[in-house]
């Protein structure tokens, strides 16, 4: 497709405004906005797409503010031409038609001519829809005739001839070729001379007048090389090769195809570079498009509201008349209503008091859950940490069943705390799904390995079956998905002995980018009685519990049901007592290769450094100090421990550290206040909050205090050092992740 024709046409239609001065950016005049449209067109002609799009968007915003349909149409025309040059055809058509809808409201036939010509080009050469494209071309010719625009008519008729020849309709295209041959010398249009000679060559090739065709093609090649018209020269080589094939000169045909391919490769590489330079700007323009649509919808709603105002007034008059007629009845019932109103007031007061008490109870419940989780996680950090220290320092205890039981019990208690917090967050609508790239097979196999302890204790085997049609990388909230699978599989393992648990994932359908995957969790365990099947998703319900069994908290399936609701999904089950149970649910994950590659490329490599970090530990709990110090020193790093915020500020006056581990809940001066004072001293050392508080509760306050990241106790040492590496070697971040 000859993109140069669009650029010439667009530039020619706007060149009359090239000498208009730019007004103050705060209060731009119409002339200033016109100048912006010319600048945007000039940048487009220079292939400076990012600058052209930014300038056109600015002009569009000012034009919308002025409610100037003509300027809006010009801005959309330039934006669409940018996207066509970048081969984003859907966006180009959208913005061209958007511009045409505004242009049709004006008396400016020049912009109507330009938009119809450009849309015709897209339909004929990009969307392969000749009839639709010719319709737009004919409209463009009508407007050219109205404004006596010989240059515009010339370019449009050249495009029509090219479109017909491109489809093999040479008889339909000949009148337009005759027109451009007649008027080419009058206009002395050097930019289109290559294309004109090529079209003559195509026409005479079709008539089998090979000598004439050969002459025109050779002239087109010479002019294309002289003028560096690479886009048009590309098509000349292709059509000339077709002529040589018909003549039987296969060697020369091959040489011209080689030249065609070499130019095509250069242009394709150039197009790739163009697209690379505008990455991210598309998203911004899409967002801007949505804002513009919102403004337009608001304007339309206002128009509808005004149109209905008369009806509303009439209805109001009728209603008022009805009210007057009912006054007598109202007077008769006045005393009765007063009595009922008094009763309603008393009832409303009671309801208000009950509402306040319910809100206070809900707040107290949330506060209690937060407090109890903090109070439990702090000693759990000590239990898990000391257990790990014992195993590290006394290898002879590695097989001790007592230590294994202690470690298991601590982790079970931690799971209980996390389950209570999870159900509390869901009830308060505090969970928002994230969009992360992940590998479904890797996540499921990781869960399988992590649950191997429970599987072995019940002498079970876990089988995994993944549909090969599922893409390697999906986009969704992998953390919530993992929680669902972990709860489902662990539940199946606990109610199965000497059996199997099967995890199946099958791709059932695709809608746009959404891939709907059906998951089945099957076991051949004890099964669930039919009368109990509706109860198992309720909180704290445990079916068939025996005193000697380990049945958990009764929250797992309730959490699964609530999390699936966040995914707009439901869960079903089939079960027979003594034969096993099958749970089925479907989740839609997005698959976008381009977005996936962007997310994967942004993932930072987990750096491992041989450097010895110097770490400052700020914690008032002696046991936590001991455990954190041991973890740091075990990884060949140096540490200093202080037990208060004041002590931390004092030691930072004389010593420098690579990282600071900050407890939050400390007496006199908590971790937030300590970090604020550290930042006020100009110290930029990364600070990691190591706390038992839930991350979502403190993220906002931590960010405002200057804390770089948060780690929840108890934690795995590898998480601590991965976070340290990211802060010391990764890109600087201004927000908590």
Automatic annotation (TrEMBL):
Official protein name in the record: histidine kinase
Domain Response regulatory: start-end pairs: 614-728
Gene3D superfamilies reported for this sequence: 1.10.287.130, 3.40.50.2300, Histidine kinase-like ATPase, C-terminal domain, Tetratricopeptide repeat domain
GO molecular function, a single term: phosphorelay sensor kinase activity
Coiled-coil intervals: 271-305
Modification type 4-aspartylphosphate: residues: 663
First-tier enzyme category under EC: transferase
One Pfam family recorded for the sequence: HisKA
PROSITE patterns in the record: HIS_KIN, RESPONSE_REGULATORY
E.C. no: 2.7.13.3
Residue span, Histidine kinase domain: 371-591
Catalysis: reaction(s): ATP + protein L-histidine = ADP + protein N-phospho-L-histidine
Keyword annotations: Coiled coil, Membrane, Phosphoprotein, Signal, Transmembrane, Transmembrane helix
Transmembrane residue ranges: 311-331
Signal peptide: 1-25
